[in-house]
Amino acid sequence: MTVSAISVHRWTREEYERLAEDGFFGPEGRVELIEGIVYDMSPQKSLHAAGVRLVERALSRIFGDGWDVRGQMPLALGDDSEPEPDVAVVAGSPRDYRDAHPTTAALIVEVADASVAYDRKRKAPLYARAGIPEFWLLVLSEEKLEVYRDPSPLGYRSRRVLGRGDTVSPLARPDVALTVDDLLP
């Protein structure tokens, strides 16, 4: 017996945004589009929310005028991806993105509680292929910060793991250092 191949419908950003505008995902729907696939996002626990807020505060302190530190807002990465990273640092101000989402970022930070595997396997490669120069993964359960740099079509070529007491300087602000403790709840 022959089994025919089943095709998967890949969504475009345009289709995805139209579905969202039409209320398809519901008012409380937490979803994101990654390479044509719509993924349900898990509800946020308080530990995750605290981590996101601490990262936003720390990055807002060191990135001033000329930068927008965006919490859980869409990025338009190509025709088939619209992730909502926990924190993204983009050039400009909020008014620059009134009519369209940013298409790149200087730094993206994902705060991982239940999503470590998803962030490593789905989001990190997407960000690398999109040319995002720096991606940080704050792994709450391990109290570690994974720093990914040097993007390529195959993923990030550099990965450093930092723990409490270690410091890191964003590529876009090499003159300023943060400690991992600044980011952890």
In helices, the fraction of residues equals: 10-25%
Rg from alpha-carbon coordinates? 17 Å
Task: Tally the helices.
Answer: 4
Major sheet characteristics: 6 strands, mixed
Number of self-contained structural domains: 1
Through-space gap between termini? 56 Å
% residues in beta strands: 25-35%
Low-confidence stretches: none
The CATH topology is what? tt1808, chain A
Give a concise summary.
By secondary structure, this protein is α+β, with helices and mostly antiparallel strands.
Tag the structure with descriptive keywords.
two-stranded antiparallel sheet; 185 residues; single chain; alpha+beta; tt1808, chain A; globular; 6-stranded mixed sheet; 24% helix
Overall description:
There is one protein chain. The chain is α+β, with helices and mostly antiparallel strands and 185 residues long. The protein has one domain: tt1808, chain A (Alpha-Beta Complex), CATH 3.90.1570. Helices cover 24% and strands 28% of the residues. It has 4 helices and 10 strands. It has helices spanning 13-21, 46-62, 116-129, 180-183, and strands at 31-34, 37-40, 67-71, 87-91, 107-112, 134-139, 144-152, 155-163, 167-168, 178-179. The chain has a 6-stranded mixed beta sheet. The radius of gyration is 17 Å and the shape is globular. It starts with 12 loop residues before the first helix and ends with a helix.
